[in-house]
Amino acid sequence: MNAAVPRIDLASLDRRGCEELVTGMGFKGFHGRNLFKWLHKHGVVEYAAMTDLPKALRDQLYAVARVCLPRPVATQPDADGTRKWVLELADGQRVETVAIPDGDRITLCVSSQVGCALDCPFCATARQGFNRNLTVGEIIGQVWHATRALGAVPRNVVLMGMGEPLANFDAVVTATGIMQDDLAYMLSRHRVTLSTSGIVPNIYRLREVSEVSLAVSLHAADNALRDRLVPINRKYPLEMLLPACRAFVAGDRRRRITWEYVMIEGVNDDLAQADRLIRLLEGIPSKLNLIPFNAFPGARFRASSPERVEAFRRRVLRSGMIATTRKTRGGEIAAACGQLVGRVRDRSRRAVRGRAVVAAGLP
Ligand code: SAH
User: Fold this and answer.
1) Given ligand 1 and candidates 218, 260, 268, 328, which is best to mutate, with the most ligand atoms within 8 Å of its CB?
2) CATH among 3.40.50.720, 3.30.2350.10, 3.20.110.10, 3.20.20.70 for 71-333
3) Among 94, 117, 296, 319, which is disulfide-ready with 360 (CB 3.0 to 4.6 Å)?
4) What's the mean pLDDT when you consider all of the chain?
5) The whole model's pTM is what?
């Protein structure tokens, strides 16, 4: 390869990007749309098979562009039907993607970073440290790959895998746009959910530029406890997070926030916390999703008992808020929430608590 020729990654371009690339090469915009469709709707990455593109365009693409998708290196099916794929990136690092069936519907759980810088003490990804953001192509490539492997587009996509999606804002917004594009995966607003630990400025930005649904990892209803469980709370405490969430749903009756709440024995699972949570979220269109803690090697916590979880849920239900308990899936293949590890060359300085957040380039 001639090092002087810039290699454009077609997998990282949305519909507009493909149009602009193609018109910049002197061809009509609709060829760009067709290129985009070949890549995502048909899953075709060989230029030779893109038969409705002019030969001269294909030759130019061959010279300057490539399709850079993550490569599956292992697949693990669990007894409950959950499948985990380990995907290798061009630099040899690995991330994980999980397909979770519910009847004949599949939810795909997608990663957004190699590792994570946020250091939540109950999450295995945090233990791996942080290396870098995924590119658009590496994020959408997980959907590309799952669609081919499953023979159909997943019904839902959740950005709940490795990483903090709002710390990789631009790539995540572009990738979710591709998920929702009619010429690609055609997922509606309710079928793409982004989960954040609460990067407040980017919650405001997200509302302006994206159509995704929002889930927020709450895990505690007061700052003292949330500072410990979700350390980004020290930078963006509840009194900043909640107004951002209110603003996210404001003016659109169809929007609501899904609050995720990991249930950890003796830490955040008593009814006083439930009452605090009810008061905290009053007036925000909300749904609470309780996640029994999933253990991993070296974890310092234990899961709340099913009775505890159910008592907490009932208390919240009484307030009129919707509250569900997430079924734990994929536990046998370390594919459940908080168990994804991949292969990460840590570039954060774990030992220096708090510094890691800087490594992620947070606003
Ligand atoms: N960084 C984003 C995306 C991760 S989503 C976020 O924090 O929201 C994964 C969800 O699983 C989050 O709500 C996370 O807090 C939760 N989680 C992490 N580790 C877990 C564990 N060990 N057991 C149960 N849930 C966990």
Assistant:
1) 260
2) 3.20.20.70
3) 117
4) 92
5) 0.94
